[in-house]
Amino acid sequence: MSGPAGRAAPDSLQGEVIPEESRQLMARLDRIRTWSLSPAFLAIIGVGFLFTFYDIFDINVSFVQTCTQLVAGCTPENALASLPLPVVLNLVGYVVGTLVLSPLSDRIGRRNMLLITMLITGLGSLYTALSGDFANFTISRVITGIGIGADLAIVNTYIGEVSPKHSRAKFTTVIFIMSALGAFFGIWLGLFLTTPASPWPAGLPFALGLESGWRWMYAIGAILAIVAIVLRFQLPESPRWLAERGRIAEAEAVAVSMEARAARRGALAEPTLTAVPTHWPPARRVPYADIFGNPVYLRRTILLFFLWFFGYITVYAYAAGFTSVFTSLGFSPPEAGVIAAVGTLGFVGEAIIMSFIVEKMERRYWLPVGTIVTFIGAVVIAIGGQSLVVDFIGAILIFAGFNLWVSPTYALTAENFPTRARSTGFAIVDGVGHLGGGIGIMVLAPLIPHLSVFWALMLISCFLIIASILAQFTVHTRNRGLEDVSP
């Protein structure tokens, strides 16, 4: 007799017995030690991440122009005062989107929801490009946030489920390289399209400074979203999710394809069932019940939520507000934009380097490393004064540091929840945790103009210390099977 979704009948003491073919399939997936889907799928997922982070960072430089055109009395010097509203409501959209849409991926599949979330994000970006006033601009950022918040949760869930257990953080970081490129293009295009031409290094000599440059920023984002949607149709469904839902034949087809590709690089080990659980907890209709109704996952949720909440205060103050912060501290808009643009080189560089070394340490240790690098960058800028060369070095270190910990913590977060509710768990801690970024900007924005450069950067960066401490209480996940970490 079968239970819900083709699962075996429940055992009154332990829950539902996992069918033998499902246990075998999970064990077979766990023995794979290399990326075993088409390499093109890494690029396909990456294009979506490129757009997602392009949208997160494109407000950084371009907002000064947006504000001066849409907000009465806005100047480059006081643009920071208007930044919190669209950023906070964009992050509210993250929370709404991820809490509503991410659980659907636990019920109808990762691939299907990845198409829906990218469609919502693209429509939001197009709406932003067409906004005629600040109210519509702000509303459009909410809609975009709804798509992005869910997309981040589902993409990281998907990557964690199709990556080898020995390199989940590695492939999360490989995808994160595309995120870094999205941030890079978002800030450099903002500098190119929205700031007037100025002699380097105080600006870009070839900048266009288009009157509607900020609109082109979001129109380009909408085009990127269309490309991502078309490409995502090629993605297979997660075999772990298929097996969990009792769709064994479909899961088997994906697993066989993965094994065949992996076998080209060497013989596969025999599958072992020792780390695969024998029972699933009783199926629940609402994925949230699997999180809040289980003391283990509830504790993990609380811990990871506060980790992301405090970490995102620093991340979003720099990601969305770096240029506005520097203009409020007396830098000219082109100069502040150039510093931010050069800083993105640190983001790209750390993502590439981390893809090679991220598996060398447990996930939780990367947060303190990122914190130290961020503080070093802040100190370098503070002592650099008006020396743009020194400021460039500091900005590169800051962008490397405040992003260095994100990809391994993405992997850690997905690993901490069971397949039946992985997107939901990720949505709760990362999605709702984004509120930290919004609240942080609201609290920090009024204070920063009254501080020196040194104390402003120290204030922004210090929240990573709290996140680093919290990270040390997370469970060991490196080189462990997903079902072993989160049965």
TrEMBL record:
Source taxon at top rank: Bacteria
Chief location bin: membrane
Membrane topology: Multi-pass membrane protein
Domain spans labelled Major facilitator superfamily (MFS) profile: 41-479
Any one Pfam family match given in the protein's UniProt record, by short name: Sugar_tr
Keyword annotations of the record: Membrane, Transmembrane, Transmembrane helix, Transport
UniProt entry tagged with the keyword Chloroplast: no
PROSITE patterns the UniProt entry points to: MFS (PS50850), SUGAR_TRANSPORT_1 (PS00216), SUGAR_TRANSPORT_2 (PS00217)
Transmembrane region(s): 32-54, 79-101, 113-130, 142-159, 171-193, 213-235, 302-326, 338-358, 365-386, 392-413, 425-448, 454-473
Record carries keyword Membrane: yes
Annotated localization: Cell membrane
Name of this chain's protein: MFS transporter
